[in-house]
Amino acid sequence: MKKKYKLLLGLTISLFFGISSAFSQNQYYLDLDASNSYLYYPDDLSLSLMDGAIDYTIEAWVLPVSGRVNDGDVILYRDQSFSLTMYDGNGDGIVADFYFSVFDVATSSWIDYHTLNDHNLSMDAWNHIAIINNSMDNTLELYANDADVSYSLYAAQPLSPSTTTYNLFIGADQMASPNHSFGGYLDEIRLKNIAEVPSSLQMYTYRQEYLVDGNTAALFHFNEGSGTATVNVASGNNATLYNTITWRSWRYKSGRSLPLYTTFLWNGTFSGSSLYGPNWDTGECPSESDDVIVPSGTANNLEIAENDNFKVMNLTLESGATMSIYGVGFATIQNLEIEASAVLNLESFLTVENTLINGNGANGIIIKSSGNEIGSLIHDQSGIDATIERHIDSYNPGDPDDGWHYLSSPVGDYTIASSDFEPSANDDLFAWDDATGMWLNYHGTGFTELEKGIGYLCAFQHSATHTFANSTINVSDVVFNNIGQNSTWELLGNPFSSAIDWNSGSWGKININGAQVYSNDSRNWSPAGVIPATNGFMVEVNHPINQITIPADARVHDTQTWYKNDKVKDNTLEIKLMGDQDKGWDYTTIAFNEAATESYDPEYDYHKLYGQPSAPQIYTLNSDSEEFCVNTMAMPEPEKIVPLHIRIGYNGEYQISVKENSVETEGNIYLEDLKTASLTNLSNVKKYTFRAIKGEETDRFLLHFNSTTGVENIESASDIHIYSYAKSIYINSAEAIMGDIKILNIGGQIVYSQHLSKSNMHSVSVPALRGAYLVQFIGEGKLSTQKVIIQ
To answer: Does one domain contain both 518 and 612?
Structure first.
């Protein structure tokens, strides 16, 4: 059989190599043009095995061609015995079904057996049809592509006994004036006088051609390739071809371990896209149901280029041929075979959904890497070797915070010594030792392998593309138990040859909080969404007894090398802090969700993980003094104030800007600078510039949500003085003022409020409070906030 290739993984070796010699005749099929074309096979002793059969199996492979096949076109016909006919079941003009008929001698009429639904067959694609009559089970069943599609539970119906000559027609229903000629392709027709078990039929798996046995009445392989005769291998006698029938080649190559059945051959006449028809011998581009052969020696290699979306069923890259996938090209291949000396250069995205064979070993698949992108391969075939690159930029000797990279192995446990990742005297490679809670330097400690699923910290003196050479790609889940025994954070690694998505797949997370990914550009950590290939990432551990599974079903193709959170989320304010020197930047996110609390919510919040010391840091706190890079709290109400903290790595000018604002507030969002007593309306002004000194206090800013509802021209007032003494807070000014006083804890929660009448001096007794607080006065268009210590 030569039609559908959906190889069961467990049968790979036996099917490919155990029977390859039996494929030598799988070369051709017949193309009937629906213009009175048919085959005629005269009745003989072999065919008479079907006479009066109480058990039988009738099979055919058919490809109905759109616009050519019509309702009632005959696939098989034997006068006064049986017929197999195409059928437009629902009258929609699409002939995508069939029915089977048996001649009843007692009534001299035909009994029709229909399918349950219309469109059981695929147009313009190969389909397997089978009829099984089983007298012991008293059933007659119709199958299409491995599915029982019988309209009802039909009782067994024997074939009529022979009283005269019953000839066999293929593609029509009589000889003198053929009617209902079939419009499409036919192959592999078999008639037997026993009821086969459905699982034994060659419906999907590519297997050895059927062999003749004592129960075979007819078996046509159609492998002659030319002429007007084709042999019934059950008898040695020939059927005769009439009118316009064309022999079509399956392009079978002797010795090939993965035979292909389509006529799409890459000729590579022109450079450029794989989706250019003249580059294929048919003049048309293959589709996802087609098979492809890429030979060697073409003028141009097969290139799946920028924005191409290339999908085929089976693809064989012949010895000496080269295929490249680059740019943002996507390729999805059901089954891929790379023959000896063939090369796949992968710098973009490839998914192999069923079977991958790499006859050229580690040299057959090169997963490329540049400064901006890395190739991505998703497949499930174990034992596939490849060469996987990872480009690593050099560090800056004058900047100790520059050039650090977090590395992981996509090929299992990889030996460091003598590899591209072995650091020289001027390079660094560190592993985290969970037992001691310390970094181990390869120089001196000499850990020997890059273990799959573990992250590593490296810095190299020179920019270079490093290679995981001669390695087997990991395709299995990786599980860790009881990590983070000496640290809240644990450095893990992406163990696959593609990116993984922290928010999809069957991650097993027991006592594990969020994950974060480091950016070399910002020199800071961000909450993980997509984790790139060959990248380490941090996970937060909240209990010594824990488990995490890095699952293969989290693999994704992603167009970015480093994590970027570009998805707009509801009720979210994202703030960026950046300095005037090229030493990175940082983000913090304040989000509002009615299901969130003021405490840490593992589902919504991310604790702050600090980047390089020179990089600016920005974060928020809750009332428990926990630091957050993503802080999700209850929906904003009037009076909501969030303290905004910064850490500065150098003296200079800095800028706070709004990256995203989708918060639904009744009023505006204000940024208050407590040091300069300035107030910026972030709803209108997206940037605020200020100067800062390394080592200054971190609690410099406040974010006001809705607290100024109804005040259009509020100003920060430097002439209002707020201070504490003993258990009282004092507010004074040169002019008499009136307004509201609010006392907030370090998490921004209001713990006390009071309206103040007009006066130059106000005194508020707070005997229950102790510690550091923010005191805010709002009134008469003025706002003043100051930090106090209550003894």
So the answer is: no
355 lies in which domain range?
264-367
Q: Which residues pair with 764 in a beta bridge?
A: 729
| Distance between CA atoms of residues 155 and 208, nearest Å | 32
Tell me the pLDDT band of 2, cut-offs 50, 70 and 90.
very low
Instruction: Please report whether residue 10 resides in a domain.
Output: no
- The pTM (predicted TM-score) of the whole model is 0.67
- pLDDT band for 516, please (50, 70, 90 cuts): very high
Point out which residues pair with 647 in neighbouring strands.
Answer: 617
* Neighbour tally for 726: CB within 10 Å: 10
Q: How far is CA 156 from CA 84, 115, 128, 152, 740, in A?
A: 16, 16, 21, 12, 91
Q: Where are the beta strands (DSSP E) in 511-582?
A: 512-519, 524-527, 530-531, 536-541, 547-550, 555-556, 572-579
Q: Is 198 helix (H, G, I), strand (E, B) or coil?
A: helix
For 218-272, the pLDDT digits (tens) are 999 998 888 999 999 999 999 999 998 988 876 544 444 444 445 588 999 998 7
Angstrom distance (rounded) from CA 476 to CA 506: 13
Residue where the block lists tokens 């699409």: 94
What is each CA distance from 760 to 3, 719, 732, 733, in whole angstroms? Answer: 93, 11, 5, 5
Query: In this structure, is residue 443 part of a structural domain?
Result: yes
Spell out a b/e string for 674-699, using b for 16 or more CB atoms within 10 Å of the CB, else e: beebebbbbeeeeebebebeeeeebe
Cα–Cα distance, 769 to 752 (Å, whole number): 9
> How many structural domains does the chain have?
5
Residues 343 and 410 in one domain: no
Taking Cα atoms as reference points, which of 522, 514, 517 lies closest to residue 499?
517
Sign for the pseudo-dihedral over CA of 422, 428, 432, 435: positive
98 in a structural domain? yes
Query: H or E segment at 443?
Result: helix 442-445
Q: What angle do CA 501, 420, 492 make, to 5 degrees?
A: 30
CA dihedral for 613, 614, 615, 616, sign (positive or negative): positive
